[in-house]
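Technical annex B. To support the medicinal chemistry partners, we prepared a structural model of the target in complex with flavin-adenine dinucleotide, based solely on the information shown next.
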Amino acid sequence: MQVTVIGAGIAGLTTAWALAEAGAEVRVMERSAALGALACSRYAGGMLAPWCEAESADALVVALGQEALRYWPKVHAATVQRGSLVLAPGRDAPDLARFARRTERFQTLDADGIAALEPDLAGRFRSGLFFPDEAHLDPRAVLPALADALTARGVYFDFGRETDADDPSLGIVADCRGLAAQDRLADLRGVKGEMLILRCPALTLSRPIRLLHPRFPLYIVPRGDGVFMLGATMLESGERNRVTARSVVELLNAAYALHPAFAEAEILEMGADARPAFPDNLPRLRPFGKQSLRVNGLYRHGFLLSPALARRAADYLLHGTRSREVMDENPGQ
Ligand SMILES: Cc1cc2nc3c(=O)[nH]c(=O)nc-3n(C[C@H](O)[C@H](O)[C@H](O)COP(=O)(O)OP(=O)(O)OC[C@H]3O[C@@H](n4cnc5c(N)ncnc54)[C@H](O)[C@@H]3O)c2cc1C
């Protein structure tokens, strides 16, 4: 069976992977000349944190997200499995208690416990929550690694071509265009996220740290060699690329609150994109045409939920199997 995947973000690549594993002949069409250049996936933190996400996300995210913890270490050996740590400045201790009430699978740590996990944070926080089963990865390493592995499996990539997902001559299509699929998914919206990449060699962290913050869940993800990704704002806007001074100030203030060493950090990059999201912030598989599918709505869970969504997409495209949790027959127009 031949399938055309449109879009080489994380939805497209994982769908191509699931299809190729099931024996389909797959080609991937990507509008940008270089992998990731126009993809929201490039800006992700890469946290695989289903239990932390339960603080604000639907139970479906927690359930589907657990697939990612089994999937990524197999598909991407550089996936780091050291858990994640949630902290709050002293004045925000009630927020930590609220976070604990809404989540599970964590250990409560005192100052010594935090210092044992992250020696560079010794003496800075009185209590925290450690989620030992969570993981993280570097999206900018995953995208090319996955594309290379797909190429090695015989998947053909066609870069630099904007494709009409509804062109009937394409045959069976997985439309994985992210926010660009708004032209066919009227209920898809953008949720803008801004992020920074900092180099701070004075500081070593081994796992993602979430710092509870009244307006958006701030996190710092170590990328190795003293490089950290700092994210992310959550704004109801489909605007891509523009980073505002206010967001940079807020992100940097939070980083400084985590550790004053960030005051001396070098800013390597400021970036933004808009996460593709449906009204309930849950992902969907939406059939169209004869046997085609739109794979979308990954919101802030691209790397967390794409393995589960892609597997279900391949099951539908190849066998017609409908997974009730994510299948949406409503055309949404
Ligand atoms: C700041 C920030 C932080 C985030 N942090 C995390 C995180 O820690 N963990 C997590 O799991 N998720 C995170 N996310 C969310 C994640 O990035 C998104 O959910 C995910 O990238 C969406 O992937 P996608 O493949 O649907 O879209 P995209 O990555 O945007 O990919 C769509 C692709 O389709 C291509 N395309 C579009 N139109 C066409 C066309 N007509 N023809 C051919 N190609 C086309 C585009 O060029 C693009 O490459 C974050 C997002 C942001 C912005």
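Notes passed to the chemistry partners:
The mean pLDDT is 95.
The CA atoms of residues 100 and 111 lie 17 Å apart.
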